[in-house]
Amino acid sequence: MLESNIVFHFVQVTQWFFLGYFIALNGIYLILTIISLNVLPRFIQKQIIHTFPNSETGFEPPISLIVTAYNEEAVIVPTIRALLQLDYHEFEILIVNDGSKDRTLEVLTNEFDLEVLPVAFRQRINHKPVKAVYQSKIYANLRVIDKENGGSKADASNAGINGARYGLFMPLDADTILERNCLNLMVQPYLLNPDTVGVGGNVRILNGCQVQDGNLTKIGLPKNLLALFQVLEYTRAFLSGRVGWNYLNSLPLISGAFGLFKKEAVIEVGGYSHKSLGEDMDLVLRIHRHFRLNRKPYRLDFVVDPVCWTEAPETFGVLKKQRVRWQRGLFDCLWENRKLLFHPRSGGVGWGSFPFLLFLEGISPIIEVAGHLFFIICYYFGLINGEGALSFLFLSFGTGFLLSITSILLEEITFQTYPRKKDLMILIVGALIENFGYRQMMSVWRLEGIIKWLLRTESSWGTMTRNASWSTPAAPAKPAIPPVLTENPPSKGKAKQKKTVKVS
Amino acid sequence: MEFVIASNISITLAWWTGTIFTLVSILCIGYMFGLRKWSEIVKNRREAVTKKWEETLYEVTVIQESKPLKKGQKPYQLTSKDKQDVLLTYIEKGRFDPVEPLPNQDLPHFLFVWNYLHESLRGNSKERLNLLANDLKIDHNTYKMLKSRSLKNQILAINTFGNLREQKAYEKIEKLIYHRDPIISLWAWRALFRINFEETLKNHFSMIVERKDWSPTFVAKILLELDKDLFSVPLVRLVEESYEKQIGERQMARLVSYLTITHISSFSPLINKILNESTQTEVVIACLRLVKSDESLERVRELIKSERWEIRLQVVQTLGRLGHDQDVELLIQSLNDLDWWVRYRTAGALMIMPSMTEEKIADLAETLPNEFARDILRQVLAENRLLCLNQTSSSILSK
Fold first, then answer.
1. pTM, two decimal places
2. In chain B, which residue's Cα lies nearest the Cα of A407?
């Protein structure tokens, strides 16, 4: 009888623990979604002013686009061609060839007529040595930094920051597709508030879309289920999470794929960390830590309408590696910046988003996997009846479904990115079925990430094959910017359908 | 086991929460499909309005402009479609005379196209657009849009009245410049200038000092639209008053940067004064960007010793711009600056000095004792050779 009572109380207490955790985690998600539902429609309505013809004033600061490339010979040329056509009055493109083993540098040299420039390269933040800097003879605003491989995107980005000529820089991957007006939109927070040191934009999934010459020509949903689930995840993360945290002035992350930073601020905090697997989050948290703890005014912002498109993994193997690495990266960042946690001067970050990331989102895989195991074991031993187990599963499903549905709702209220009714149906079905297997699988992979972080096992970026199904063969295109010199016409490269890249 | 806990409160709570969330999700799905349907209706309406008006508006505003025909170009011929629509009325009667006013639900879509054209065009075309808007009797419903909860409609209404120069709307829009939303207030300010320039200049010009939340880019855009002959003096006066009131450094620097839009002659004495007196870094930098005459030359030269690299950087650029041979030596010394940016800009400044030739700079690049100075000169020489010395930023707010 006594044993029965102990077990009974244990089961009850554990049930309440899981329920409490569930309410806290999903309650915050829901609060962030409600904030976004309130903020986004007003924001979008005001964007009408950007649809009218605009003249440039000269008040917009110039921007350095830093494209890090490692073995990107297949996609680098169309990407750079698309970047050259961005609609902004003054920007430079700085390609960092991170010791590629393929023909990336050769392709760039042929296409953009590169010549070595005797640059007085200054190394204000650390990275592997620079072998040479090249200047395009066709485009005055195009340079290539050829450096030794540093083994991480952080190393290549740091070289780009050192070589950037302008005060604002945007780190990009070699397969990122930007919308043409995105720089004009991204720069707005800097104009409104000179204390701004970083701005994040909206990242969407490219799978299922069509791209020609580096420009998005058709928007669609991926046929691959894993990619479809990631569309939902990105929608939740950007339209709900980032908007919500930004409203609370506690933005914990600016995506490495799409952010605009003030160079001096990033150099002040030491640039990107080579050690961290989540170098983008680490940078943002270090900025928070440095500026908040030193009582320096700063602002990190998120703007929802400038959009960048990036490819998502479509196979279990690649996705698993990505998620394991993300989870390790998350804990790396949280551990490195633990000083922020409940620090009296850490404000909304130290008392809001950081504890949320650590105690709720960070350890959620442990709780979720433990929760599922607990209910299975209790059910197996008859400690809980079918109704009880079903109730908790139903709660788990209902919450997950609601969060995804509200994110789709946010998308519908604001952009309606996927115009066909069929796409909406597919998204809703995706939101329904991701609860049966996908989420649980994510929890297990993320748990593996935590374990690997705790064990400090060897980590590497590795190379993985992605299917660039969105890319259609390049058509001959005229450069949008008039060439400076046309003595040596550039040769044309061909985009390949398969490529090997580092997954970020 | 006695404690099969189906009635346990935590389970009940879990069950009902799950149920409620699922129901809310289902409601959201229903709402989304409703929203899609509504969006389709709105889209169809917008397309219909655009189809009906866009071409007509374009023909009226652009093609009917009297332009000399190019050799071999035929005069525009009306199509049968043209003759069926309001364009015919315009051609025949010299003005629009639609049978009925524009339906209320079509108004926002029409106003969008109408405003878009208004923002794109100049001269008589704008008058014709205004004539059309008056004939369509849009003002009553546009007043309603001014009070709309939709910020989009509010902005459209404000802009419409501004473009129409609707005097009766002045008072209503005047209240909106105090709106807490910076976009609404800024666009209201812009509309006021269009409706009554003198009155707005007299009463509301100082808003650019008061509203710290206004985007300097948009303020600059609005100022660029105005006649600089008319606002140069008031702006210089406003900057001077603000300087004397010792407003915040950042706001003062912003104000000074707006002077770039005015006539140089009107602001030079004031810039000279501020440059000589101010110790605020941002203000000094903003002033240095505007130095275009020799009045402030001595002060500029003094500032090369500033502790702030941002100031030294502006100084070398200013000296390069002013181009006095006696500053060459000063610039050569600045090639030893500890900051890379200052050295880089100094090398750029030397390149544009009238007395410096590429050969002389190449000599310096070989003979200067400082390795860093030699390196930076070599870089800039190479850049210049590649015709890519375009880094002297056109941006006022850039470093």
1. 0.83
2. B28
